[in-house]
Amino acid sequence: MSIIICLFQRNRMKIKNIISYPVWIGSRNQLLVKIETDNGLEGWGESGFSSRELGVSGIVQHYKNLLIGKNPFEIGKIWQRLYRSQYFEGGRTITAAISAIDLALYDIKGKALNVPVYELLGGKQRNLVPTFATTSAPPGPEMIKQAKELIKSGWHAFRLSLSQTGGDKEYESIYSKKFGLKPGESNIFEPRESLNNTAKWIIQARKELGSEVVLGVDLHHRFSVAEAASFCNKLPQGTLDFLEEPIRDESPSAYKALRKITNIPFAIGEEFASKWQFVPYIEDDITQFARIDICNVGGITESMKVAGWCESHYIDMMPHNPLGPICTAASVHFGASVPNFAWLETRESAAENAGFTNDKIIKSSHNMENAMYVVSNEPGLGVSVNEDYLKNSKFKQWDPPQLERNDGSVTNW
What we know:
Blueprint: H1 2-12, E1 15-25, E2 28-37, E3 42-47, H2 53-67, H3 75-84, H4 92-113, E4 128-134, H5 141-152, E5 157-160, E6 187-188, H6 191-209, E7 214-218, H7 225-233, E8 242-244, H8 252-261, E9 266-268, H9 275-283, E10 289-290, H10 299-311, E11 316-317, H11 325-337, E12 344-345, E13 362-364, E14 367-369, E15 372-374, E16 383-385, H12 387-391, E17 403-404
Helix pairs in contact: 2-4, 3-4, 5-6, 6-7, 7-8
């Protein structure tokens, strides 16, 4: 009887409304998207285009008329319709909006069928989704102390800190007060100073932490090919297990050049906004870990395609997850469903608390135990949202640090 009811729901259910909430939660804005159906079911999604939430919200509004009246079970068809609905396909703003909508549709479908989302993706391949953490102290003794605390708390893979100033006393974190810059103010970032200090303390960390722990560092695409190569050459063999986003991604040939210079595995992909951007990095074996962002690349629909493609090249998934509980929940279902999985990023650990999670606003059924998420069996994504809080919350204008070099030229954050 329940199967008959589900089939009836599938054939009769229609999308009634879509609402976006760009609101400040913790230390940054989050763009949450709600899809309502005519039978009372609702689904929630999240966009990952941080600091440009209003732009993504505008795209969601553009898509509203295309979505109303559609069958929410037709997730793949809706994805294609939204992506092809404008003459100019693609781009981060568009796919960030599609990502949020895609997640919300999976949430609805899981609830309608009374199954967790991972059942819609082929079922669980693991009960626990391992994570990696990140130190928040600047490169130095405190960073190494935090790393040791992470090991005691169950983490066996984590990123060490990148030097912001070239000194040992300051580290720019994603929830730093320095994010609140006034107009005309800027942070100074000198790549050579940063890489020298970062390399020095990473070498020391490896000596103190031993060879069994997995160590990486996120260079946050702040370096040129020559600078990134210089950084790698300063590290003894075996110091790092992965190097994340050393340079910008617009030129795959530049990454090819860097790949020839160093043997440190690369973790690339958090900036990619489609499966097509992954093409050269997978087909030419440039990256060894795929840092896919489920809230930017096009949602679960695109992520599963990229994961299968990566599997054929023996590349493990290592999802980018610097957002809220909805992104985390979707990434947990994704991580539970694919065979080629390394770690999911977490920003809530013994070493940092980015403030992205608040159970009074969004409650997740996926709990962390010993540095791994226990995959929830609740229907849909397994999250509940306090919509009243969102309705009474506001968007805060925020931009990332606008970095400059000592000579006044602009450089990457």
